[in-house]
Amino acid sequence: MRAPLLAVHNLTKTYRSGGREVKGLDNVSMSVAAGETIGLVGPSGSGKSTLARVVMRLIEPDSGTIAFGDENLGALSGKALRSMRKRIQMVFQDPSAAFNPRATVADVLADPLRIHGLASRAERPRRIAELLDSVGLPANLAARPVHAVSGGQRQRVAIARALATEPELIVLDEAVSALDVTVRGQILDLLVALQRERGLAYLFVSHDLAVVRAVSHRIAIMDRGRIVEAGPAATVVADPQSETGRALVAAIPRLHIPRLHTLQPHTSQPHGEASQNA
Ligand SMILES: Nc1ncnc2c1ncn2[C@@H]1O[C@H](COP(=O)(O)OP(=O)(O)OP(=O)(O)O)[C@@H](O)[C@H]1O
């Protein structure tokens, strides 16, 4: 059996605020294979963002393990962690929050090239044009202030920035949730096309099961910090086994289901269960 690209085991994270304890993650185990999209869906507060941030090492779990390829990602620090950050990138719901308000599109794309030493100053304009092209944007957008481009274009810039380090996994946290329906469909199409071209894996986090179903090979449903159900996307949507799953399926607006892609993982068929605790 092929080893998963990302595998987390028994992750727990308890938040303490104002004398109250909230279980952000309660013994979560799941994996993502190379070239595969795992959709992580659940109601507000179910722990999706916590899991995404723990995978990115933006939040430390209380216990549990995170493996990426052969590396014990949870134990890395310093230079080794910085080097690992090239292999896993993240795209947020609102990329503008992460962009310097005065930055141009070129500045945003130059950052990862500079930080990770991926292109000399002289090479950067050509590399930036290539990155823009890979997300369907014209090279002349580079000179525009990033705040002056449309929401859809800004999200394409965020994806291009993630691609700059040639990652194997991109964690997308509500990455299309703020976009209107037409633009959302275009970005989903782009993500699927990039996956096919590059064999990228996605951990696709969303509260919207219809969107998750459109792009995911497997779906894991979270509720109150636990994965309550996981399986092939079509099976989970057609026959949800958990109460949370049934509620999410019932909430899919019948007239607004995005076009279903016929998904073929870039590499061989993904294996295993999304969750050992489901
Ligand atoms: N920094 C924090 N301090 C205290 N509690 C937190 C913190 N971050 C998250 N929580 C709590 O942990 C639980 C899981 O939150 P999380 O943001 O991971 O869920 P989510 O599924 O991503 O929700 P949403 O879709 O609303 O972002 C929630 O009850 C939330 O209130």
TrEMBL record:
<keyword id="KW-0067">ATP-binding</keyword>
<comment type="similarity">
    <text>Belongs to the ABC transporter superfamily.</text>
</comment>
<dbReference type="GO" id="GO:0016887">
    <property type="term" value="F:ATP hydrolysis activity"/>
</dbReference>
<dbReference type="InterPro" id="IPR017871">
    <property type="entry name" value="ABC_transporter-like_CS"/>
</dbReference>
<protein>
    <submittedName>
        <fullName>Peptide/nickel transport system ATP-binding protein</fullName>
    </submittedName>
</protein>
<dbReference type="InterPro" id="IPR050319">
    <property type="entry name" value="ABC_transp_ATP-bind"/>
</dbReference>
<dbReference type="InterPro" id="IPR003593">
    <property type="entry name" value="AAA+_ATPase"/>
</dbReference>
<keyword id="KW-0813">Transport</keyword>
<dbReference type="GO" id="GO:0055085">
    <property type="term" value="P:transmembrane transport"/>
</dbReference>
<dbReference type="InterPro" id="IPR027417">
    <property type="entry name" value="P-loop_NTPase"/>
</dbReference>
<feature type="domain" description="ABC transporter">
    <location>
        <begin position="6"/>
        <end position="249"/>
    </location>
</feature>
<keyword id="KW-0547">Nucleotide-binding</keyword>
<dbReference type="GO" id="GO:0005524">
    <property type="term" value="F:ATP binding"/>
</dbReference>
<dbReference type="Pfam" id="PF00005">
    <property type="entry name" value="ABC_tran"/>
</dbReference>
<dbReference type="InterPro" id="IPR003439">
    <property type="entry name" value="ABC_transporter-like_ATP-bd"/>
</dbReference>
